Amino acid sequence: MARTSPTPSARAELSKALRFAIVGGLATLVHLGVAMAALALGAGAFQGNALGFGVAFVAGLVGHFYFTFGLSNGFGRSAWRYGVIAFAGFAVNNGLLAALKTAKAIPDSAALAMAILVVSAGTFLAARFWGFVSHD
Asked: Residue 69 gets which letter from DSSP?
């Protein structure tokens, strides 16, 4: 059976998904790094998580707007929509963190890492199809 190559639109979507993963991965590392640094400096897990989220939000917003989705206008609208997506993810993230801390089965650092990493997976679709739509 002959192998077919992806259509141009499929290639474009794969390219966006790859760029999203790069920016999201970097933002996740920023979130995790800032949160872990705050934890090491004596902040609680929730305080570190909030600080890391704030810094990562800005990094993700700028990276996704310009690099992932290549937009040049509508930054305010995208920022608002991405904020909704990010804060919903942060709420889920904190719920998971609270559950993991309540269970006391793993150290705070592992609970924090798990909570941050789990939420990242679902944000691509929301960002792609609502948060960063073209505003032309």
From this structure: S
C-alpha angle 31-56-81 in degrees, rounded to nearest 5: 135
pTM listed for this prediction: 0.74
Q: What angle do CA 11, 85, 24 make, to 5 degrees?
A: 50
CA distance linking residue 64 with residue 131, whole number of Å? 10
Q: Cα(32)–Cα(123) distance, rounded to whole angstroms?
A: 17
How far, in Å, CA of 82 to CA of 62, rounded?
10
Chain-centre distance for alpha carbon 127:
10
Backbone φ/ψ region at 104: left (φ over 0), alpha (ψ -120 to 50), beta = left
Per-domain boundaries in the chain: 15-131
pLDDT tens by residue, 103-117: 888 898 898 888 887
